[in-house]
Amino acid sequence: MIRINLLPWARRADKAQRQHLGVLGAMVAVLGCSSSSGSPHDRGLTSAQSERNDYLKKENARLDKKSRRSRSSGVKSLRLLCAQADHRAALQPIAAQAVYLLQELVQQVPDGVY
Fold first, then answer.
1. Is the pLDDT of residue 41 over 90?
2. 79: which of 35, 48, 86, 98 lies 20 to 30 Å off by Cα?
3. 3-state secondary structure of 38
4. pLDDT given at position 35
């Protein structure tokens, strides 16, 4: 059987792999440094987003106050609606009695009397 010496091939493959790992490590280091420093554009985006968040917080607070006011006025209006319903219920028999009395009056008044 013929013996083939694969040692030089293995050494070349190891050398190429070490070279690729070195390049990859350098790329990771460069990208890590550039991303950790943060660009001015990123800082501008962050400040713009924080301004938007502040605006939304202020608007939410304003709407909360408005909803509390409308809730309290809603309770008042509900009370008024209940009072109106009670008055209608109290006046309903009187209205029926008034209609009955007017009908009796019409029947008892002779024709031609206005």
1. no
2. 98
3. coil
4. 67
Going by C-alpha positions, the residue among 62, 63, 59 that lies closest to residue 51 is 59
Class of residue 113 by CB neighbours under 10 A (exposed 0-12, middle 13-18, buried 19+): exposed
The mean pLDDT value for 6-29 works out to 89
At residue 65, φ and ψ (nearest 5 deg) are -60, -45
C-alpha–C-alpha distance, residues 44 and 54, integer Å: 15
φ and ψ at residue 56, rounded to 5 degrees: -65, -35
Residue 25 CA to residue 17 CA, distance in Å, equals: 12
Q: Which residue has the tokens 């070490």?
A: 18
Query: What pLDDT, on a 0 to 100 scale, did the predictor assign at position 111?
Result: 82
Check residue 42 and give left, alpha or beta (phi > 0: left; psi -120 to 50: alpha): alpha
* E runs forming strands in 1-114: none
CA–CA–CA angle 36, 38, 23 (5° rounding): 45
